[in-house]
Amino acid sequence: MFAPMIYQGGVYQHNKILELVEDLGGYLIQKNEMQTEVSLNLFVPKEDIGLLEAKANALKGELKYAPLAGTDILLVIPSLAFHHMPHPSCDIAEYLRREGATTTLIGLSRGVGKRIAQIKESEKKLIEEYDIAIFVMGIFDACIIEKEEKLLEDINIPTLVTGGPERLNLRYANSYVGGIGRINHRLKKEGEIKKLDDVLTSVIRLVEERRENIAKDPLIIEPPKIMYEIENQVSDIKDVVSPSPISIQIDGLRVKLPYNEYNNVINEIRFDDEGYKLGEIAAIKPSLFRQSILIKVRPISDITTI
Amino acid sequence: MAEFTEKFDIELCNVPPMFLDEERSSLDKVIRDVISSLNLSNTVRKMKVFMDPKEAYFIIVANLASPASPILLKDVSVTSLKGGKIALSVFNEEYMPSILKFLWDRYGRENIEQPERLDVVINASDLENILKFVVEDPSSIIFNKLIDAFDRIKPEGFRVTRYFYDKKSIYLIASEDTIKDEWLETAERILNEIKGSE
């Protein structure tokens, strides 16, 4: 079982951390170099965290548990207008990224208003590609209740709604965080940071519930292992300029290569120690998001059908 | 209420259907943020906001302070006559585009020299005639700024709007549906209230 961790420290000798993680059989998910600092999102075997901690201490770096590393979280806002951007939606996204999540922000094409709010079928499919969706809504409780019924109906992933009223009973959302309505300034006051913490806690709870559900019928292969093999076997992934060419999800991963050209290559990826190829153990689909490839790994109970 | 002090008052109307307290404080913050970020806090003296989230319409009424007087060329520059030419030195670069456009239109580009960024030499001697040129008239841009501010304050989906503006007060009604006559009457009533309270 892997534990998601973040290492933050100097660039100098951070390779030693990477070498140790590789020796332990762990994986590097994402690496951000910021001048002299480096931040590494890692998946490490749980029983070996002590070794890594010792190494991090020796390098004067910091190792912390990152409950959201390896999750792909989507923020949905009614539109990309200044009523919702950049505050509070970007503030929430940034706060989740600090805990290791990969975040994406989308604005709905017709999500604004109360009676006129709509969501397209393609938007629902796009939302369902992610692990968790956060809907950032406005101030008025009557509007949030009506909109929530329209926008969140039949979305099959865990959803969280943020809005102005402190408490709301919503029909479809798995969780609700109040006190964040429309805000036109950066969330930096004490009470506002506390609200961001509330969002974070709710997201972590949803992620852990999802991970627990998956653990009941585990995936045939852990997504970080697929990521490692893609990096080794598909050399073109090194030319992708996106900050995270491969983003890990709880039950799969997103590869930012065009589906039409790389579908076959991804399908044929083989794993040394196992006898099968990727196409047999995972559903490989074109993603609605910028032509990328979406890989959803099958659970072990599917193995009899292979 | 917002923690910083502003010169204007905001009243979120308290007639039924009322705002909930949380809605009231959130909207109050949004309004104060928008008004101060658009530099309108000296313009708006009093503001009343009315909204019915059930029927979905939004009314915002503001009483305006009298706008600052127009800025003339003589207020923003030093002028002198030298050898039959006018020398003009402007204090603030912000006003240069409007001043240069005026001078080019009046004397033609060939008669205007600009030796330095903020200095102009004009090949003419009728100094008195240009001193009263209006460089910027704050009252003409206030309307656009107010409409911009109201657009940011009102709920985004309320795209059907109707407004009234008479330089001393302004109101805007916004909704998802066609504007009803009774909403107009409510807006007029609030406008009269706000005028009467002066």
UniProtKB/TrEMBL annotation, chain A:
Lineage: Archaea, Methanobacteriati, Methanobacteriota, Candidatus Methanoliparia, Candidatus Methanoliparales
Protein name: Methanogenesis marker 7 protein
InterPro entries assigned to the protein according to its UniProt record, in alphabetical order: Me_CoM_Rdtase_prot-C-like, Menthan_mark_7
TrEMBL record, chain B:
InterPro entries listed in its UniProt record: Methan_mark_17 (IPR016762)
Superkingdom of origin organism: Archaea
Organism: Methanoliparum thermophilum
Annotated Pfam families: DUF2113 (PF09886)
Protein name in the entry: Methanogenesis marker 17 protein
